[in-house]
Amino acid sequence: MPKLNEAIRLAEASNWQGLLTLVTASPSCARDCDDYGMLPIHWAATENTAPLALLERLIEAYPEGVQVPNKAELLPLHIAIRARAGVPTLQLLLTAYPESIWVETPSGTPPTILGVQSCLSSDALDLLRATERLVAPDAKGGNQKAVKLPTPVISPTHQSTNRPHSWHTISRYTSTPATKTSPPHAAPLELSYEQSDGNSSEDNNSPCAEPQSTLTSATIPPAWMLIEECFVCRVPFNMFKHRHHCRNCGMSICSAHSAETKMMMPGYTNPQRACLNCAAVLRRPPPPAASQANDKQHRRRTSKLFTSMVSPKSRDKQDRRDLRLRVAELTKQMDQLMQTNMGMQQQLLDQEELKAETMLLITQVMTRVSVLELQNEKYRQSDDFAM
């Protein structure tokens, strides 16, 4: 007999192997739900480290779980897209619930557009578009919000009102109840898609189609995205769940979605913190020498074009030399300003982390002082009683 909240506890701790063992032994644990409407399959979709076998086991134990939104009205597919899950994970969720490709988020964003905003890989975007072509919106009556099943998803073991609340919070606001219309059950859909060759105009025009190009060529660190919740799992930050910033994309992330080790990045002289997705991109090998040669040739042609535009042929050699010196001087000043700006941003980041560590230390000291005061008061009362 599994312990109370054991499945949710393992899911919150990202203990995927333990959760797989538990669900295999007791399939009813796949129906467990926390205070925020999060099933184990919701938690498994928040991280790319969750094994595919676990998702398959959760869907097998509770097939309707992929159709159940949490209290933030997000399906497991929405959470997986935000977490930039791989193609196998997305294909498994879409096969279990194909109509979810037309279920919008509370902000009215369909999964395909959400994938573009979350900078999914080109293969994952091709999978979402292929599913859109296979599942017609007319069969579902157009785009819709996430729907809730009329049957409750909270197991009898979780009906106690004395259960302690989890630190993981999905939303700070109370979501509007969704229309309780049970979607028709559809047979599993075998999805197929074509691999992208990287030359599609649609992918090239998308600002997030190839995130690695912006990560490796950036010379100035991106601005901070100071939000109150993790960009991946949408769990709010608090005293016990610290905020971290990815120095590569600028997003606010929690420790669960931060790389274990700091990495070297363009524009920095020492290793910096990175999220899991940026760390995977930064670990990729550099482009081949042919690509570097093409880039140098392109820069050389661009430089010649710029020189021809700003230096008319009618000017003499002295004017051209003065203009080149002026451009070189301005470029040097710009580089110095960039270095100064990066140094100031680094100091600001260090101060933010120092502040968080100081607040944690103060909390621990205050807790210890309170315990000592209680012990002192207890000893004083015992002495008075003895006298």
UniProtKB/TrEMBL annotation:
GO terms for biological process: protein targeting to vacuole; protein transport to vacuole involved in ubiquitin-dependent protein catabolic process via the multivesicular body sorting pathway. PROSITE patterns: ZF_FYVE. The keyword Membrane does not apply. Keywords: Coiled coil, Metal-binding, Zinc, Zinc-finger. One of its GO terms (cellular component) is ESCRT-0 complex. Residues 224-283 form the FYVE-type domain. One of its GO terms (molecular function) is phosphatidylinositol-3-phosphate binding. This is FYVE-type domain-containing protein. It comes from Aphanomyces invadans.
